[in-house]
Amino acid sequence: MKRILECVPNFSEGRDMKIIEAICEPIRQTTGVKLLDIDPGASTHRTVVTFAGDPEAVIEAAFQAIKMAGQLIDMTRHQGAHPRMGATDVCPLIPVSGISVEEAVELAHRLGERVGRELNIPVYMYEYAAKSTERKNLSIIRSGEYEGFAKKILQPEWKPDYGKAEFNAKSGQTVIGVREFLAAVNFNLNTASVRLANSVAFDVRENGRIKTDNGKPSGKPILDEKGEPVRIPGTLKECKAVGWFIEEYGFAQVSMNLTNLSVTSLHQAFEEVNKSATQRGLRVSGTEIVGLIPLSALTEAGKFYLAKQNRSIGVSERELIQMAVQSMGLSDLRPFVAEEKIIEYKLRETTKGLNDLTISRFTEVLASEAPAPGGGSVSALCGSLAAGLAAMTANLAAGKRGWEDRIPTFSALAFKAQQIREKLLFLIEEDTRAFNEVMAAFGLPKTTEEEKVARKQAIQKANIYAAEIPLQVMQTAAEVFPILKEMILHGNPSSITDAGVGVLCAITAIEGAGMNVLINLQGIEDTAIHQGLKQAVEDLLGASQKTKVELLEGVYQKIG
Fold it and tell me: Is 420 within 8 Å of 509 (Cβ atoms)?
């Protein structure tokens, strides 16, 4: 899984586009980062910027943007409707994929320390990155705002986490932290009634509704021993929601923020809103994603609705997304364009790779004079074909009439095969990239002694990587054998030969990739690495050959 970290800094400038663009320029210039959105607000005098990419690159881009904001924004003259405490008011980091909260917290503290030390801006850490529970909540830290910090920062309990405990009149203070991805979603209802929309929102949001003596909104609120209203919690955790009327559309919506998709998923929210709406004689007539959404939110939804239909979840990523879009009505208002709404797709490189080519074009490129793509990429391709056949045979078994009780088993096998297929597709591209890195290392200058040493080290590093990639192809392709074995023994008899072809593709991938490992070993001088890779190849080849013979015997026994 690609490592993606999102950053959504809020800068205290919403009117001067020259300043806003200047703050965003370092983000644009940082390799490995993509600027996704700039949302200025004149009345709030605040701009929310969204960018994402490689975690290390995101941290660098965030620092440079904070630095630029500190240079260009004068907080002594700032007035706006939104609460604020500095030129960069808040800078949250959000793990999207391939990075844990703990890793993001470590990066947040590294950023905070650097901002405090190099820019002389006091830094407070919040949410998951908070050093104490008292500082988890952003609004508590920001209390008193910019004007109040001249005295607040001198209080021992409000000493900054990083930087000096001195009021920075020009730049103010900043808050840096880590939070979960916030998904903004609107559920359309077939009514113009805000009252009904609010009733649905109150049913589902975590804060629920105030309890009354007659159980109706018109009743008298019931108070607890502290004199606070007693609340009836809603059905969804980490969920904020309200009903409103959208004049542009002519109907009401439940507008919702899901603050932790691992606690309450997009499809769970849809199901609960739909359930509440149905009880009130309404229905959800479509779903609108506001901003961007992580890929996992849609693939998990796709799997949920396939399982609900008693179908296999072992389908492609594209099919999972389409199932989510259809099931939740994501295209009812306007077409849902995955490349524009899914974060991971938005971050994809615009240049096309080998996997984007047609079969005809791929073989055409393969047949050219260029040494890459070559046998390594073809080996990975063979492995992906094996995994595709494994998924296909498992899905056919899951769809066989009379085998409904076995759907969960076959569905899990198909899903595993799809994961293997996707990894091998990645390795098609990576094998060619590894070859190009070797060529680039050999092309480094070698005039001075330092250049010679650097060149030799680069060649060794590239050769090791060029051997490790085909080894990954071998290991990954071998993972398809247990699935194919299950399909040969217990799958749909009509697809037995498809499983057999899968076995042949898998062994071709393993033996072909093994050749590539062995030839790249010739350029590796480290004896331990050389021997370790060689032994791994020999072990995989030996085990795979035995498995191939066993599985093909099973195929021929069944087909005569």
Answer: no
> What is the percent of the chain with per-residue pLDDT over 90, rounded to a whole number?
82
Cβ neighbours of residue 492 closer than 8 Å, sequence gap 6 or more: 393, 396, 397, 400
530 labelled catalytic:
no
Strand partners, 253: 188, 244
Query: Strand order in 284-290's β-sheet?
Result: 239-246, 251-258, 183-189, 284-290
**DSSP code, position 238:** T
Task: Name every residue whose Cβ is closer than 8 Å to that of residue 368 and which is 6 or more positions away in sequence.
Answer: none
386: burial class by Cβ within 10 Å (0-12, 13-18, 19+)? buried
What is d(CA 381, CA 513) in angstroms, rounded to the nearest whole number?
11
Q: State the pLDDT at residue 229.
A: 84
Measured in Å, how far apart are the chain's first and last C-alpha atoms?
43
Which tens digits make up the pLDDT trace of 155-187? 999 999 999 999 999 999 999 999 999 898 999
- Tell me the C-alpha to C-alpha distance, in Å, between residue 82 and each of 45, 48, 145, 168: 7, 12, 10, 20
Under DSSP, is residue 52 helix (H, G, I), strand (E, B) or coil? strand
What is the DSSP code (8-state) at residue 348? S
Q: Which of 89, 203, 431, 498 is labelled catalytic?
A: 431
As given in the structure block, the two tokens for residue 95 are 């793990």
pLDDT-wise least confident of 77-91, 222-236, 309-323, 380-394: 222-236
Task: Examine the residue annotation and report whether 45 is marked as an active-site residue of this protein.
Answer: no
Residue 515 pLDDT class (50, 70, 90 cuts): very high
Angle at 468 between CA 465 and CA 473, to 5 degrees: 130
Q: How far apart are CA 489 and CA 429, in angstroms?
A: 34
**In terms of Cα–Cα distance, which of 94, 90, 96 is closest to 46?**
90
Kindly tell me the burial class for residue 435, based on how many C-beta atoms sit within 10 Å of its own C-beta (0-12, 13-18, 19 or more).
buried
Domains of the chain: residue spans and CATH:
4-178 (3.30.990.10), 183-346 (3.30.70.670), 354-559 (1.20.120.680)
Q: What share of the chain is helix, strand, coil (3-state, %, to 5)?
A: 55, 15, 30
Burial of 225 (0-12, 13-18, 19+ CB in 10 A): exposed
Q: Which of 82, 332, 490, 530 is catalytic?
A: 82
Cα→Cα distances 14→43, 70, 92, 160, 216, Å: 8, 15, 19, 26, 43
Show the tokens assigned to 3. Answer: 């490592």
**Mean pLDDT value across the chain:** 93
DSSP letter at 215? S
Q: Is the entire prediction scored with pTM above 0.85?
A: no
pLDDT one-digit tens code per residue, 210-246: 888 777 777 888 888 888 888 889 999 999 999 989 8
The CA distance from 255 to 253, in Å, is 6
Strands 231-232 and 251-258: unpaired
